[in-house]
Every structure is written in structure tokens, then in C-alpha cells.
User: Which sequence fits this backbone?
């Protein structure tokens, strides 16, 4: 009997075609050893059966090459007596299914019963890819050393101080299980892989270097099995936290799969994907990739949805904040209503969402007057003032972010400052100056310092609100920076005549300034600031009188003799007209 006919007969028999009621070769209940033997026989028969095929000769030669590789691997497994290995056992049904499909293609090529050349060529290419995948999977088993250990032996997880080789061997074993194990085995391997990456930063380097593990993780992001997707996302989120490996993830094409997870993954998977993207987009070069895969739209949809959790919204805000640095993407966000969306998020009860949304609004409005005006128009100031409100219980971080945003968005515009004051911002700022802890007071002082350098109307409002007496309290602070801000702010406020009169009405204010001046070392920075304030007060009659009638004039004269900045000017102002007689001596220049 010719070889081709004999091969066909063997294939038909192994396929159960001599008895249509039986197809035992492909039954999952077949014992593992029998399944492996059947696979070897079917592959050998298929190779023989394909030899006489005249059409698509090149394609069939490629298939035969893969079948030969596959058969050699299966025989090696049989020789190792490893057919009971659950990984090997799980693969046999897939190999037999591929063989069945290949036999069908071979039969149609022998009978010339295929419907079209292009379609058949495509089917044959797909078959080459299938067998190539089986070969690579079996190769992975050999690489991991699973066969030589026996299926019952599980590689133990290395200890914290294990050497690199032990960790590498363990990771290779996990990789093999991820590639060719069943669902449960894949999940278990991914969980163990996650434990390895979070245990030690050095392990991340080993994992990235082992085989094609990054590519496998990226492919699992598109898995239809949600559990596998979630586990893969967790590992990716850890790896993306390291600068050194982000380029490897990008090179493996991870952006597209992460966006698809955002669009259709589980809530847990979406959170992990958003965190990964937030880390990956710290490099602005990756912004366009996110945009190209529709990531901006997906992220905006998440932020606008009432169904999204705070754990998802916060990293999604972070990604969009990173992308806002690209002008074209920023414009698209604005057109899609991002400003109103994030102002609503700033009113969220969740502090993480508040912080992320406020950071986004600052970023998108930075250096762009039109966007800044849009934020104000959409109600951004009211939302920020509400976050800053001391009457509402919350931690310091959201308030800190709100105050910085208020400074950046409002202090450059007189109209925005007017809106701020109408919402009670002055009282809030004054509250933290008086009652806040050290860090809150310092932040409030910095804001008040900046505010004091704006318009005349703002200075008057600050004087009426009681800021001057609070600035005086900071003049003897330990920090020179704090003393300097307080002094400059106070100088700015008393430059307004109305504020000067109000300030000197309390004799304690001028007396305290003179006491501090007496305590400071000659030519110290603080002494110069104090003299600057006193110089401003001499523009007011009652202020000059209080200074001139105090017991500190000789000290001021000594400072003038020591060439301390503005001390001479101060003495001259105090020496004129009706105050001349109040001086103990005449200053001669």
C-alpha cells in the first residue's frame, strides 16, 4: 500500500472515522499516558499523509517542519515518563485539536476540494502559527526543568536572601506555568509572580530579564478571563513603578492593552491599568500613544461617570494631568468638557479625588489665561474655597492643594480676588494664621504675603480684616523666611494711609517693633526689615510721634551711624519740624 494511502488509513482510524460513534482520541477523559501516545501517533501519521500534497508545497513543508519539532518534543516527554505532569496532560487536548484541524486542511488539499486559494493560504498560515505555539510551549517546559523534577514537585519560593540564580529558576518555572498551564495554574503562578515583584526591587530586574515574560503579561491584559487580566495588571502596575523598566513595557506595546482594560475590564483591573498609565505617562513622550489608542476619551469618561469609584478616578485624574502638558491634547480635553468635570470632582467627599482634580485644574490652567478664566467662569473659585473652608472637617493635604490652586488661579487677577473675597476667603485665611498648626500657619502666611502684594483695594481689605496684627506676631518667629515674609507683607499693608492710621491706633504695635529692633544684631536682615516698616509709619503723624517719644531713639541713631540701610532716612524723618525738639541730639550728615 502506498505511504500516502497508509497514512490516510492511520489518520482515519485514529480520528475514529471507522466507528463514527467513537472519538476516543479527543476525549478529555483519556488517561494522560494514552493521550500522549495518541498525539505522537496522530502527528506521525499526519506528517506521512501530507507528503503527497502537490498544492501549496511551501506552506505544507513549513507545517511538516513544525510537526517534526512537535513530535520530537512529545517523544522526549514520553521518554522522561512525565506524561502524568498536569501541565503536559493539559496540553494534549490542544495538540490533538490542532492535529484534527490540520488533517481537515490536508484532506481538502489532497482532494482539491478547497473553496479558494487565498482562503486556504490563510488557513495554512494559521496552522503553522498554531503548531509553532505548541512547540514553544513544550520548549518552555524543558527550559523550566519541570519534566526532570516530576510533576508532583513544586518549586519552592526562594527566601528573601536567596541568590539571583534561585530567584531566576523560580521565575522561569512561574513563566512556564503562566504560558501553558490551565486557568487555575496560570492564576496561581501570577499571584506568586506578584509576590516576588513586591518583595524586593532586585527581583523586578530578574523578572524583566527572564524570557518573554513582559510580552506574556502584556498579552494577558487582553485575556477574556477577567481573573487572569486582574492578576496580570497587578504585576504590570508594580513594574511600571520603576523608571528603568518603563521603556521595556512601552516597547512591548503595553499602552493599547491598558487602554482596552480601561474600556472593558473589571473595576479592579481598571484601577491597576490607570495606576500603570499614570506612572508611564510621567514621560511626556508616551502621551501621544495614550491619545492614539483613545485613552483620553476613556479616561474622561471614567472621571465623568457617577459609577466610577474614588480608587479609579484618582489615578485617572493623574494620567490626564500628565497628558495636559501636551497642548493639542489639552485643547481636546477642554473641548470635551474636562474643566466642568474636574470642578465637580473637586467637590467630591473623597479627599484623594479632591487632590487629584485640583492638581489637574492647576496643570491645565498653568500659563494659559483663557483656561484660567474658564475655570473661574465654571465655578472653580467657589469649589476651591469650599475645600479650604476650616469649618469642614478634612485633613491638611486637600486644603494645602486648594490654597495653592487659589494662589495660582486667582492672585494675578483683581476681579478673581474680588470673587474670592465675596466667598469669605479672607476670613478663612485669617483663621489659619491665628489657629492653624505650624505648617498650616506657614502656608497661610505665604498666601497672605502674596496677596499683600496685589492691588490697593486688596491691601485695604486685608487691613480691615485684621491681618496687620497677625503679621506683627510673626516678626519674632525663629525662621528668618517667616520673619521676612511677615515684615514685607506688613510694610506693603502700612503703605496704604488708611492701614497706617489703623496700625498705630494700637500703641503696642509700634512698641513691639521698636523692642524687636533693639534686640536684633546690627546689619541683620531682620533689622533692615523692621526699619523699613518704621520708615513707612513715619508718613503718619501719630506714628512719628510714637517712635520719637519712645526710649529707642538712641538705638536708631546708632544704627544710622553704623550705616544700616534706611536708618539715616528714618532719623531724618524723625528730626524734622516739631519732632526735632523731642530728640536728644541733632543728626548731622
Assistant:
Amino acid at each position: 500500500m502506498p505511504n500516502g494511502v497508509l497514512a490516510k488509513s492511520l489518520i482515519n482510524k485514529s480520528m475514529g472515522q471507522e466507528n463514527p460513534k467513537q472519538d476516543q482520541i479527543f476525549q478529555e477523559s483519556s488517561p494522560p499516558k494514552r493521550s500522549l501516545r495518541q498525539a505522537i501517533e496522530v502527528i506521525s501519521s499526519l506528517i506521512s499523509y501530507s507528503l503527497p500534497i502537490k498544492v501549496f508545497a511551501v506552506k505544507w513543508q513549513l507545517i511538516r517542519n513544525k510537526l517534526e519539532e512537535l513530535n520530537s518534543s512529545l517523544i522526549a516527554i514520553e521518554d522522561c515518563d512525565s506524561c502524568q505532569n498536569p501541565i503536559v496532560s493539559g496540553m494534549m487536548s490542544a495538540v490533538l485539536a490542532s492535529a484534527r484541524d490540520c488533517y481537515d486542511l490536508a484532506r481538502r488539499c489532497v482532494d482539491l476540494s478547497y473553496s479558494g486559494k487565498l482562503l486556504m493560504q490563510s488557513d495554512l498560515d494559521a496552522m503553522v502559527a498554531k503548531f509553532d505555539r505548541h512547540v514553544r510551549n513544550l520548549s518552555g517546559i524543558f527550559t523550566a526543568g519541570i519534566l526532570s523534577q516530576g510533576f508532583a514537585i513544586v518549586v519552592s519560593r526562594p527566601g528573601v536572601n536567596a541568590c539571583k540564580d534561585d530567584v531566576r529558576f523560580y521565575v522561569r518555572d512561574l513563566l512556564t506555568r503562566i504560558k501553558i498551564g490551565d486557568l487555575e495554574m496560570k492564576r496561581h503562578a501570577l499571584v506568586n509572580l506578584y509576590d516576588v515583584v513586591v518583595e524586593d526591587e532586585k527581583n523586578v530586574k530578574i523578572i524583566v530579564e527572564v524570557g518573554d515574560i513582559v510580552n506574556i503579561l502584556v498579552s494577558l491584559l487582553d485575556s477574556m478571563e477577567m481573573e487572569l487580566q486582574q492578576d496580570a495588571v497587578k504585576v504590570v502596575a508594580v513594574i511600571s513603578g520603576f523608571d528603568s523598566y518603563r521603556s521595556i513595557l512601552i516597547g512591548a506595546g503595553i499602552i493599547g492593552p491598558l487602554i482596552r482594560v480601561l474600556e472593558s475590564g473589571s473595576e479592579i483591573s481598571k484601577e491597576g491599568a490607570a495606576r500603570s498609565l499614570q506612572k508611564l505617562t510621567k514621560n511626556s513622550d508616551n502621551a501621544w500613544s495614550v491619545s492614539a489608542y483613545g485613552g483620553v476619551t476613556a479616561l474622561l469618561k471614567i472621571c465623568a461617570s457617577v459609577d466610577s469609584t474614588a480608587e479609579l478616578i484618582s489615578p485617572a485624574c493623574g494620567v490626564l494631568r500628565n497628558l495636559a502638558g501636551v497642548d493639542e491634547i489639552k485643547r481636546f480635553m477642554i473641548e470635551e468638557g474636562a474643566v466642568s468635570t474636574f470642578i465637580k470632582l473637586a467637590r467630591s467627599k473623597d479627599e484623594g479625588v479632591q487632590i487629584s482634580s485640583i492638581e489637574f485644574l492647576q496643570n491645565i490652567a498653568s500659563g494659559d489665561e483663557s483656561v484660567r478664566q474658564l475655570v473661574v467662569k465654571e465655578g472653580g473659585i467657589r469649589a476651591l474655597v469650599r475645600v479650604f473652608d476650616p469649618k469642614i472637617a478634612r485633613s491638611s493635604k486637600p486644603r494645602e492643594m486648594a490654597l495653592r490652586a487659589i494662589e495660582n488661579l486667582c492672585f494675578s487677577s483683581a476681579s478673581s480676588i474680588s470673587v474670592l473675597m465675596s466667598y469669605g476667603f479672607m476670613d478663612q485665611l485669617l483663621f489659619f494664621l491665628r489657629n492653624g498648626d505650624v505648617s498650616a500657619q506657614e502656608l497661610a502666611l505665604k498666601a497672605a504675603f502674596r496677596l499683600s502684594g496685589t492691588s490697593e483695594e486688596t491691601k485695604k481689605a486685608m487691613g480691615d480684616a485684621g491681618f496687620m496684627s497677625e503679621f506683627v506676631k510673626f516678626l519674632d518667629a525663629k525662621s528668618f523666611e517667616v520673619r521676612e515674609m511677615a515684615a514685607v507683607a506688613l510694610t506693603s499693608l502700612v503703605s496704604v494711609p488708611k492701614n497706617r492710621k489703623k496700625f498705630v491706633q494700637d500703641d503696642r504695635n509700634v512698641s513691639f517693633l521698636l523692642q524687636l529692633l533693639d534686640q536684633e544684631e546690627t546689619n541683620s536682615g531682620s533689622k533692615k526689615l523692621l526699619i523699613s516698616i518704621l520708615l513707612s509709619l513715619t508718613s503718619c503723624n501719630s506714628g512719628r510721634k510714637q517712635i520719637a517719644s519712645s526710649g529707642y531713639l538712641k538705638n536708631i541713631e546708632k544704627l544710622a551711624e553704623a550705616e544700616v540701610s534706611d536708618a539715616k532716612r528714618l532719623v531724618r524723618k524723625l528730626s524734622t519740624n516739631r519732632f526735632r525738639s523731642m530728640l536728644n541730639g541733632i543728626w548731622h550728615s
Observations:
- The chain has 35 helices and no strands.
- Residues 14-29, 148-153, 583-589 have pLDDT under 50 and may be disordered.
- The CA atoms of residues 427 and 465 lie 7 Å apart.
- The two ends are 131 Å apart (CA to CA).
